[in-house]
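Hi team, as promised in this morning's meeting, here are the two structures we talked about. I've kept the exact order from the run log so nobody has to guess. The first one is mostly here for context; it's the second one we should focus on when we meet again. Sequence first, then the predicted structure tokens.
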Amino acid sequence: MKIAVIGSAGSLGSRIVAEALRRGHDVTALTRTDLDAADADAVTTAVRGHDVGIGATRPAPGQEHHAATTTRSLLQGHAAAGVRFVMIGGAGALRTPDTGELVADDRRWVPQQIAALARSAVDQLDECRMATGTDWTYVAPSAVMEPGQRTGHYRTGVDKLLVDEGGNSYVSMEDMAVAVVDELADPSFRGQRFTVATATN
């Protein structure tokens, strides 16, 4: 499979590249110096001829309001190229398992200092849902996603934040990468959002 990873220099993007290469896929790694993700025409040119493109971009602090515009450009660029698109989003767009409130608005999960980043995930998902002509999938991590162990064992959900028996919501970046590449190879969530948590047993 020929895969374009936009945002390949990031913590998760680099792990997705490594996971895809590990499985023998042909990967084009694109950083912000290679491609302006907010330029839909440039995105079309960059991803044309690939089987799928992955958006692993993340807004810089203070630039969270640009996330929706960038996501829209990525969607439009992939649609014009006729290439499937997978957006790596955030947990903020999920619902809490107890109250059903947006995670982005629940300070138990999202401290005020990252509230704008969490809210940008909601905007990204809205852009995906409004898009026409794009074969998209939106992937949300757990509340905590950090470098860790590649266990290869994970759980998936659709709308609610996944928590373990202790009330923790966690996925290692390595297992997130495994789940993303699994979805590329065997799609189960086309045209919808799914979320991932490292399995605890």
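And here is the second protein, the one for discussion:
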Amino acid sequence: MAGEKGGIWLDLYKHSLSIAFGLLFLLSFILHFYGSLKESNTERFEKHLSLESWQDYITGSRFWFESFQNWQSEFLAVAAIVVLSIWLREKGSPESKPVDMAHNENP
């Protein structure tokens, strides 16, 4: 509501992490697409083939193969960090529970 304390800015801030990650994902996707299309067309030009339109390239297998390879490695890295940070501890770390505290206890 417009009359609420903080208004739209507070609503945006409440979801700022999701918005930031969404924008970063979108930006990286666009930059990867642009770079990959440019590289593909450079290769095609050097082989005297016709250049590929962005519409044809985005529906082609090369772009999605590259994207899924990249996403697979990134998601594996993030998943490993998240899962390991839940179960493993680092003595002296402010983000970690004390080493001798049970998993179901709150600090």
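Starting points for discussion:
The longest helix spans residues 16-46.
The chain has two domains: 1-59, 63-107.
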